[in-house]
Design brief:
Blueprint (H helix, E strand, L loop, with lengths): L8 E3 L2 E3 L10 H10 L2 H6 L10 H4 L13 H6 L42 E6 L10 E5 L3 E5 L2 H7 L2 H4 L1 H5 L4 E5 L11 E4 L3 E6 L7 E9 L4 E9 L2 H20 L8 H11 L12 E4 L1 E2 L11 H4 L6 E7 L3 E8 L10 E6 L3 E6 L5 E6 L7 E6 L3 H15 L5 H7 E3 L17 H11 L7 E4 L8 E4 L10 H11 L7 E3 L34 H8 L3 H12 L5 E3 L9 E4 L5 E2 L5 E2 L3 H10 L6 E3 L7 H13 L6 E3 L7 H12 L7 E3 L7 E2 H8 L7 E3 L4 E2 L23 E3 L7 H10 L10 E3 L7 H11 L6 E3 L11 H7 L6 E3 L8 H13 L5 E3 L11 H13 L5 E3 L14 H6 L11 E3 L12 H9 L5 E3 L7 H11 L12 H19 L7 H39 L10 H5 L29
Parallel strand pairs: 3-6, 16-19, 21-22, 22-23, 23-27, 27-28, 28-29, 29-31, 30-32, 31-33, 33-34, 34-35, 35-36, 36-37, 37-38, 38-39, 39-40
Antiparallel strand pairs: 1-2, 3-4, 4-5, 5-7, 6-10, 8-9, 9-10, 11-13, 12-18, 13-14, 14-15, 16-17, 17-18, 20-21, 24-25, 24-26
Helix pairs in contact: 13-14, 14-16, 16-17, 17-18, 18-19, 21-22, 22-23, 23-24, 24-25, 27-28, 28-30, 29-30
Length: 1072
């Protein structure tokens, strides 16, 4: 090696001549960073450090040649060990316990005559020896860790300790023993410069105590020295260790100190010249380390290894181009280091790097093929730099290896590293990536939220419907899809009601340069060659669905409801070609899911496809996959997918194979139906069901129950249903008895929705159900469209006696006698359990009488429990079935009601009433309503203006939906009135006047539309005023109440309250 002379510099009090070529090329590169960090120590110490003869002031400054940028290869190999790329810890002021009053100005002379602040101090208990009667004392300063013989000796050096005796006395005493008693000074002092400390970590010995080991490079011994300190409590150990590490970090950043002495580097290079050819030309990275366990086998007995195996030695780890070398320098009798003993490992044999966060300990595991692994258990304050260097070298040596191979090697806390959160709540980098795609694609931002509550697999990403545009563009959708690629933060994805038609049928294969996703983020899942070619030739939407569900391994659930609710797309044939066929059309989001389910390359086992028309090819593909891969599906929903009877029967064959694992099943509201007996064969074995919705999907009758949620046998586990919907099927007696028995069990207290709409229930059946539910049960019961007046009306008496659930639907009940309807109004007026009530289309058999109107007013006035009330008329019923004008007078009872929060009174033709003054007064004076919906009541433009004027006096309502249908009705009504007024004109002048009449009519209708729009604008301004009122922000509504309210423009601050359901008996048992 050509060694040229270099200027001398002083190291440890002696001069050494170091060749210039052996200097680190990045000395000048790190100079600015270290000089900038010099100011940190001044923020910690109460006095200047300029009086300290530290190595910084004693070293002679020398010029170094900057390393030139050649290639990435040389940058990885020649990166200096002094770089701190792996340490991104923020610089912060030291949080210390004050040991001297602020502002006293007391100065304590230290060992070197400096005035230093004390970061932490405390007394030490003496060793178990009769020769030591005084307690030793430990002091941590910004420059050193010092152990004194006694507290008085510490006070002599730091007088401020005596001033703050209360603070010192509060410290927990510790038991201390030093393994280097011979290194203490005559005064009994042990001074450890912080910049000389190699590592401080938890003692891993077998002693029954909580200790730490502090290793530092002792210039007197020419080796690493250890101080062992034991603590009586783990909290004391952790606090001291935290303060020591933090102070070391700040101290080393303020010094231009190389981590490795130059003589060590020179000796190590000479030792490696004979074994590694590349060491002559390439530079090494060298870091001091402490082995925590022996790393070589010794011929001596194992007892000699347990004690003192690291004495009189120093250890360094070095990295060359292809090797990792652990060197041990042993001190001889003359205190000089001898040639090191080396243990080297090939970098390509590195199998695992375990780095412990917030700790200096780390493990390196190397393994040759067909041999046992070798483990290095090390510790160093440079552990981050070491792991970073290893990662870069692994990337350089194996450039063709995918990233997931490194993720399996480099582990944090013993687990595969999770995706980072770069900027706070970045959700695994999603926010940053999405913003980059949005800007790169030059498109508008999208609306999205992350849900943690009320979802089965949190956190759930939810793409919301766009604001200011009817649907998202193709670029906006692609930005979201590609930001979600390989993101393992989210466990479920929701695209409910998001229109995917912008990507439907779009191809980009001719111009696309990059390949599609064929490998998961960790590499555990991948596509075969044939599957990859199929994806490569598919549509953009097909490719993006595959990328979402294959690239990430965390997604368990995806909601694709109503994403393609329009026309069906051409089906995908077996050879990957799209073949249009009038009999085999399919939904474009189904084939990519089937591809991954068939190949077992996704962890997603729950899917919602509601509202998407499914073709024959989709049903056939789903059935094949479900039959060939039994017992993997958890959630499956195909509600309103236009399935005919043949399609539903075929699909049920596949669902039968998933009966033992299904937790949620929804096949409701399709045109086809299956026989109840066939459905029973599947449902009787579906013991894990939590959500079952087969509304309007079952037909026929049979002997026996449709399912058995409970059994008298001890081996049977009752179901834990949360939702049950049997609407549209005439429930037989056995099934009804099973339901009534089940709701009495403790296992049924998780049931929150029981829908029996249009099930042919009589009044006696409804009475039996309400009797078993009890008072105030937290459940939504739907008994709509049933002949509840037949047989018995005792269920009305149960409502009056508070034997009713918290939420109940009584829509479209055909009362044949007004007296029964009036009894219901009186019962509801006194009920104390029902908070949510829907009576859409329910009313007396004829137009409301004065008595009915009076009882309705009393109901509004007396009830102090209801929060949600829907008294809308059914738009399909005849007008004489509406409450109509009787409702306008009854509204007076709401003026003093302060508990009702949501009121909906649609379709009652209130505009036909002679007097709407009570409606105006309620709107202006009511102090409880937060949401009012009175759309579709045939108001003219004058009545609408009075409504808006009354609304201006209300400061609580935050939802007042407006409808274009009402505006169009007002315009048409004014047009009819105009024609009726002009029918009496003279017919002889009809031809001459026709043109002027048309002009007047056009002007009148235009004025009505402008007037209506101006009043609607006032209403929106009033609504915004109320929403901006901070007093209204305290409004709390449950999720069911908000979901039932048809207003997409609700303010963002209105967050549903989380419902805590009581396990065991319900809350209102005492009301009975």
């Amino acid at each position: 090696m050509d060694l040229r002379p270099a200027p001398q510099r002083i190291v440890e009090g002696r001069e050494l001549e170091i060749p210039k070529t052996q200097r680190r090329a990045s000395f000048s590169a790190m100079k600015a960073l270290r000089l900038r960090s010099l100011s940190i120590s001044s923020q910690i110490s109460s006095s200047s450090e300029t009086d300290l003869p530290s190595p910084v002031t004693s070293r002679r400054r020398t010029l170094t040649k900057r390393s030139t940028f050649e290639t990435v290869k040389e940058d990885l190999i020649r990166r200096p060990s002094g770089s701190s790329t792996g340490d991104n810890t923020e610089r912060a002021s030291v949080s210390t316990r004050p040991t001297s009053p602020s502002g006293t100005g007391s100065r304590g002379t230290s060992i070197f005559g400096d005035s230093l602040a004390i970061i932490k101090s405390g007394p030490l208990q003496p060793e178990t020896s009769i020769l030591k009667t005084k307690k030793e004392f430990l002091v941590l300063t910004p420059l050193a860790l010092i152990k004194f013989k006694s507290r008085s000796a510490a006070i002599e050096r730091f007088p401020q300790i005596s001033v703050s005796s209360s603070s010192v006395g509060a410290l927990t005493p510790v038991d201390s023993s030093s393994s280097l008693k011979d290194c203490a000074a005559a005064a009994g002092e042990l001074y450890i410069p912080l910049e000389k400390i190699v590592s401080a970590f938890n003692d891993e010995g077998t002693r029954p105590s909580f200790g730490i080991e502090v290793w530092w490079s002792d210039p007197k011994c020419a080796a690493f020295t250890c101080l062992q300190v034991d603590f009586s409590l783990p909290d004391d150990r952790d606090e001291w260790l935290k303060q020591i590490r933090h102070t070391i970090k700040i101290r080393t950043k303020s010094l231009l100190e190389e981590p490795t002495p130059c003589d060590i580097e020179a000796e190590l290079k000479r030792a490696l010249e004979n074994t590694q050819t590349e060491s002559r030309d390439a530079q090494m990275e060298i870091y001091p380390v402490i082995p925590r366990r022996p790393f070589t086998r010794s011929k001596s007995n194992s007892s000699e290894l347990k004690k003192g195996w690291r004495d009189n030695s120093s250890f360094y780890v070095a990295f060359t181009k292809n090797f990792c070398v652990l060197a041990r320098f042993t001190k001889c009798s003359t205190n000089q280091k001898v040639n090191p003993s080396l243990v080297q490992f090939g970098l390509v044999t590195l199998s695992r790097v375990n780095v412990i966060l917030n700790d200096e300990r780390f493990d390196l595991i190397f393994r040759l093929p067909l041999e046992k692994s070798k483990k290095l258990e090390l510790s160093s304050r440079h552990h981050r730099n070491i792991s970073t260097k290893l990662y870069k070298l692994d990337t350089y040596l194996k450039p063709a290896w995918p990233l997931w191979t490194r993720r399996e090697v480099f582990c944090i806390d013993g687990e595969a590293p999770q995706m980072p959160l770069p900027n706070g709540q970045d959700y695994g980098g999603f926010r940053t990536t999405l913003e980059a795609f949005i800007e790169g694609y030059d498109c508008a931002s999208v609306e999205w939220i992350v849900q943690w509550k009320n979802v089965r697999h949190p956190p759930q990403f939810c793409l919301l419907e766009p604001k200011g545009q009817s649907k998202y563009t193709a670029h906006q959708l692609l930005a979201v899809f590609r930001a979600l690629r390989f993101n393992d933060f989210f466990k479920s994805l929701s695209f409910c009601n998001i229109d995917f038609s912008g990507l439907s049928g779009a191809f980009d294969n001719a111009s696309r340069l990059e390949s599609t996703v064929w490998l998961s983020r960790t590499g555990k899942r991948s596509l075969t060659k044939n599957e990859f070619e199929l994806v490569e030739n598919s549509s953009v939407l097909f490719q993006e669905i595959v990328a979402l569900l294959l690239g990430t391994e965390s997604v368990r659930h995806i909601d694709l409801s109503n994403v393609l609710s329009g026309e069906l797309a051409p089906a995908l044939s077996d050879n990957g070609q799209y073949v249009p066929s009038p009999t085999s059309q399919g939904c474009e989001v189904v084939p990519p899911v089937l591809l991954l389910w068939k190949s077992l390359q996704t962890r997603c086992n729950s899917i919602i496809l509601d509202g998407n028309p499914l073709g024959i090819s989709d049903i056939a593909g789903l059935t094949r996959v479900l039959q060939n891969r039994p017992d993997f599906l958890r959630t499956f929903s195909v509600s309103r997918c236009r399935l005919d009877e043949n399609a539903l029967i075929l699909l049920w064959e596949g669902l039968h194979e998933q009966r033992s694992t299904l937790e949620s099943l929804n096949v409701s509201y399709n045109s086809g139906r299956i026989e109840a007996a066939k459905a029973s064969e599947t449902l009787n074995d579906a013991g894990k069901l939590r959500h079952l919705n087969i509304a309007y999907s079952i037909k026929g009758n049979f002997n026996g129950p449709l399912f058995r949620p409970w059994s008298a046998t001890s081996s049977f586990q009752p179901w834990h249903l949360e939702e049950l919907d049997l609407s549209g099927w005439k429930v037989n007696f056995d099934t009804l008895c099973g339901i009534m028995k089940y709701v009495e069990l403790n296992e049924s207290h998780s049931l929150r929705r029981l829908a029996l709409t249009n099930c042919g229930l009589s009044g006696e059946m409804a009475t039996g159900i309400l009797c078993r539910l009890g008072a105030g049960r937290d459940m939504h019961v739907l008994l709509s469209e049933n002949p509840l007046e037949v047989g018995s009306t005792d269920w009305i008496d149960l409502i009056e006696g508070n034997e009713a659930p918290k939420m109940i639907d009584l829509d479209m009940i055909q009362f044949q006698h007004e007296s029964n309807f009036n009894r219901l109004l009186m019962a509801l007026a006194h009920n104390k359990t029902i908070e949510f009530l829907s009576m859409v289309g329910t009313g007396p058999p004829d137009r409301a009488s004065s008595k009915t109107s009076e009882l309705l007013s009393r109901f509004f006035e007396l009830n102090d429990t209801l929060q949600f009330l829907d008294l809308s008329g059914y738009s399909g019923k005849l007008e004489d079935g509406h409450l109509g004008w009787g409702l306008t007078g009854a509204m007076a009872g709401l003026k003093q009601n302060i508990t009702l929060r949501q009121l909906r009174i649609r379709n009652h033709d209130l505009g036909a009433a002679e007097d709407l003054s009570e409606v105006y007064r309620v709107l202006a004076a009511n102090k409880g309503l937060a949401m009012l919906d009175c759309r579709h009541n045939n108001f003219n433009h004058h009545q609408f203006a009075k409504l808006v004027h009354a609304f201006s006096f209300n400061h609580q309502i935050i939802s007042f939906p407006l409808s274009d249908t009402d505006r169009e009705y007002a315009v048409q009504k004014e047009k009819q009135s105009f024609f009726q007024h002009n029918t009496q004109s003279d017919k002889t002048f009809h031809t001459k006047k026709s043109k002027s009449v048309e002009n007047r009519l056009e002007g009148l209708l235009e004025w009505v539309e402008e007037f209506w729009e101006s009043e609607a604008k006032k209403a929106r301004e009033i609504l915004q005023r109320n929403r901006d009122n901070s007093f209204n922000h305290s409004l709390e509504l449950e999720r069911e109440y908000i979901d039932a309210w048809d207003d997409k423009g609700l303010p963002s601050w209105l967050v549903p309250t989380s419902k805590v359901r009581e396990k065991g008996k319900h809350l209102f048992d005492g009301i009975r």
